[in-house]
Amino acid sequence: IVRPKEYFDKNNNEIKFKFTFSSPNISLTPNPFANSALWLRFLARMTKENVANMAPRYEKVILCRGMSEKSDSQEAYVKTLKTAGYSCDCLPTLCFEFVNITELRSCLLSPSLYYGLILTSRRAAEAIGLAAKENDSILHPWRTLPVYCVGPATESFAKSHLGSENCFGKETGNAKELAELLVVSVAKKSKPLLYPCSEIGRETIEKILNENDVKVHKIVAYRTLPTKTLECDLSKFMDDRSKIFVFFSPSTIEHVVALLKEKSYDMNNIKAVAIGPVTGQALLNAGLNIFAIANKPDPMSLLDAISNAEKSEFDEKSD
């Protein structure tokens, strides 16, 4: 049996399912529901496991991301989710403003003073690119220095846009895991690591490195703001049907939840999924129930988290 497709019949105000049968042993009339005996036999053969592996319970997935993140990374998330049977949309939640670029450029002009770079987001890499925009030869000495990145997407961006040749950390899923990698990779009391970050960046990396005598030079390189169209864009998704909202950072949660409360939307219809434990904690702090947490910032980890959460929810309601 191919996964059924759920749809809403506006004429009868009902939720219905379309089934496609792939077994050569099943013969149906044009309307399978017309043959009630055959339909009952079919239902009798359906086990709990069969049902749990059918179509996604919540068909719509909303990715809450930065306004300029229409990249290969985003396309990979959309493709993975659609292949699994979900309808996927993106909610542009954040825009970014770069700050302290002159200070960052001054640091980049002195590569001999640093051990390497820490990049926890694509935005941090963009800030470095902006600082070197007028003279990209500034980046040449940095290309061979170690660059420690959170996740494969950040590493890929550093390689393609900064020319970084010595990247580490793509297997890490959050700042804590990257900091732990740095502790075992960087000698104590070595030259400092240059760390451009967000204005609201958590202190996780800095705290762990300081506790282990690994020097870090932190520079606030960008700040996050809600997009001007967020209110209008969010309203398009807020009907009476439950949907999965995927939050990639605490900042996305802050701005989306503020609007949900301001407009008195029913937050019970939101199945909130977090990328990483820090974002998961932010969901709790904001008063949203956690549907699932993806351990790593990659499409398959997200799909696994959603699928497991749906199966667990089905099992609970079936018991």
User: How much is the radius of gyration in Å?
Assistant: 24 Å
**Separation, N- and C-terminal Cα atoms:** 24 Å
Number of domains: 2
**Strand-and-helix sequence, N→C?**
EEHHEHEHEHEHEHEHEHEHEHEH
Shape: elongated
Tell me the number of helical segments per DSSP (H or I, 4 or more residues long): 12
Largest sheet: 10 strands, mixed
| CATH class placement of the largest domain | Alpha Beta
List low-confidence stretches: 21-30, 32-52
How are the strands of the largest sheet arranged?
A: 7-6-5-8-9-4-3-10-11-12
Computed structural class: alpha/beta
What CATH architecture of the largest domain do you see?
Answer: 3-Layer(aba) Sandwich
Residues in helices, as a percent range: 25-40%
Average pLDDT works out at 84
- Strands, total number: 12
Question: In the CATH scheme, what's the topology name of the largest domain?
Answer: Rossmann fold
The fraction of residues assigned to DSSP E strands is 15-25%
EC number: 4.2.1.75
Family: Belongs to the uroporphyrinogen-III synthase family.
Organism: Heterotrigona itama
GO cellular component, one term: cytosol
Describe this protein's structure.
It is a single chain. The protein has two domains: 60-94 and 238-316, Rossmann fold (3-Layer(aba) Sandwich); 99-225, Rossmann fold. The chain has twelve helices and twelve strands. The protein has helices spanning 36-45, 48-52, 72-83, 101-108, 122-131, 151-162, 175-185, 204-211, 230-235, 250-262, 277-285, 299-318; strands at residues 2-9, 14-20, 60-66, 87-98, 116-119, 147-149, 167-168, 193-198, 216-226, 243-247, 270-275, 290-294. Strands 7-6-5-8-9-4-3-10-11-12 form a ten-stranded mixed sheet, with helices on both faces. Strands 1-2 form a two-stranded antiparallel sheet. Residues 21-30 and 32-52 have low confidence and may be disordered. Pathway: Porphyrin-containing compound metabolism; protoporphyrin-IX biosynthesis; coproporphyrinogen-III from 5-aminolevulinate: step 3/4. GO terms for molecular function: uroporphyrinogen-III synthase activity.
